[in-house]
Amino acid sequence: MATINTNLTTQWLQAMVQINSVNPGLDDLGAGEAQVAQWLADLCRALGLEVELQETARNRPNVIARWRGTGGGQSVLLTGHTDTVSLENMLDNPLDGRVEEGRLYGRGAYDMKGGLAAILGAVEALKRDGFQPRGEIILGFVTDEEYLSIGMDALVSVVRADAAILTEPTELRLCVAHKGFAWVNLTTQGRAAHGSLYHTGVDAIVHMGRLLNVIERFEKEAALKTKSLLLGRESIHASMISGGLGLSTYPDRARLQVEHRLLPGRTGDDVVEWWQGHIDELQREDTRFSAEVELEFYRPGYEISLDAPIVQTVQRAATAVTGQEPTIYGMWAWLDSAILGRAGIPTVIIGPGGEGAHAAVEWVSLDDVFACAGIIADAVEAWTA
Questions:
Q1: H-type helices in the chain, by residue range?
Q2: How far are the Cα atoms of 15, 73, 129, 136, 301 from residue 50, in angstroms, in the given order?
Q3: Which residues of 25-63 are buried (b: 16+ CB within 10 A; e: fewer)?
Q4: 98, 182, 287, 331: which has the fewest Cβ within 10 Å?
Q5: What pLDDT digit, counting tens, does each position of 174-225 carry?
Q6: How far apart are CA 337 and CA 359, in angstroms?
Q7: What DSSP character marks residue 244?
Q8: What is the structure's pLDDT at 202?
């Protein structure tokens, strides 16, 4: 069992948290991932790895670090994202990386620089122990997971591996499934007219209310339906709505943006077809009703079998390190593992615990970071030997 250098791992995590890597797609003032990527690249070179930077957008590089194997073994990708959400409205100093009572605080500590530190701690321990893998060990630190995942899309275009471990925060549980999502734009068309001309005006906002009723009915009915044991049920919520020309004018147009959270196997095309069916029904009931549906963005859900070799390998390592079998569960949020799975790389998710992802106070458990590093080291040793 690998011995993790806890002091070094803590220092690395603190250094990463102190680097602002707010996603500029979420915040116009976001610093982006360039500085933290350069820090990671320098550290990986110091650990003796071959390093390249892969530009995913201007000044937003992925870091790809390789530990070449001697040949004949299985390769593994250790991966996580370098971007964070905004610092806005955080309490105290969001970039101080302070340590209190076994917790390291700051934006990204939990989501997910703690997981990146666990990867680094694992590799350092294996290097120090003189381990020589037969299969290649690849580290992939990617941009933009918090928005459009352009980083992971770029990574899988150049990296192939027999399996991957994604270190999103899981409280050391083994995550083997997560939901997908679809962003949909719904537009209703009315007819603009003076507010006194009820006989000619058509109210697009009132018509949008009918589509809101569709969501409300779905939520009530879905709550009564069978749920996935790992992921619960699908859900829909109205995210943003706009429309209207003035207080004394019938609105000619209204726009509603909706998010669907989907179970694995459901697609964006399925969502569009579902909405079109409801629109067609409403048009049959009222010939003045006019609406359109457009799929803006879609990411699939993901699920991996409990019998998959990488799941079994990580499960054994977690049991050995923690002294108990890890809980198996599914995550309702979306993760980059769906992109890895779609690229043919079976992926299991395990990472440290903490609190405050996207919240005013964020922290990660250092003991969990160290345990996660030990799990990764043992799993990688077994997988690539």
A1: 6-17, 34-46, 114-128, 150-155, 204-222, 268-285, 309-322, 337-342, 366-384
A2: 22, 19, 19, 11, 32
A3: bbbeebbbbbebbebbbebbeebebebeebebbeebbbb
A4: 287
A5: 999 999 999 999 999 999 999 999 999 999 999 999 999 999 999 999 877 7
A6: 23
A7: -
A8: 97
Are 204 and 190 spatial neighbours (Cβ–Cβ below 8 Å)? yes
* Dihedral over Cα of 267, 298, 33, 14: its sign: negative
Yes or no: say if 380 and 317 are a contact pair by the CB < 8 Å rule. no
Q: Which residue in 335, 346, 383, 382 sits closest to 115, CA to CA?
A: 335
Q: Which of 119, 93, 2, 77 is nearest to 369 (CA)?
A: 119
pLDDT in tens, 301-336: 999 999 999 999 999 999 999 999 999 999 999 999
Residue with tokens 């550290």: 43
What the chain holds in terms of domains, given with CATH numbers, is 6-178+301-384 (3.40.630.10), 180-299 (3.30.70.360)
Report the alpha-carbon distance of residue 331 to residue 347 in Å, rounded: 14
Q: Which residues, listed in sequence order, are joined to residue 331 by a DSSP beta bridge?
A: 178
pLDDT at 224: 78
- The Cα–Cα gap between 130 and 128 comes to 5
Strands 76-81 and 164-166: parallel
DSSP per-residue codes, 34-51: HHHHHHHHHHHHHTT-EE
User: 301 near 266, Cβ under 8 Å?
Assistant: yes
Phi then psi for residue 58, to 5 deg, are -60, 120
The residues, any chain, with a CB within 8 Å of residue 285's CB and separated by 6 or more, are: none
Give yes or no for a contact between 265 and 282, defined as CB atoms under 8 angstroms apart: no
Residue 110 contacts residue 357 (beta carbons within 8 Å) = yes
What is the distance between the terminal CA atoms of the chain, rounded to a whole angstrom? 14
Q: Which residues of the chain have pLDDT under 70?
A: none
**131 CB-side CA count, 13 A:** 27
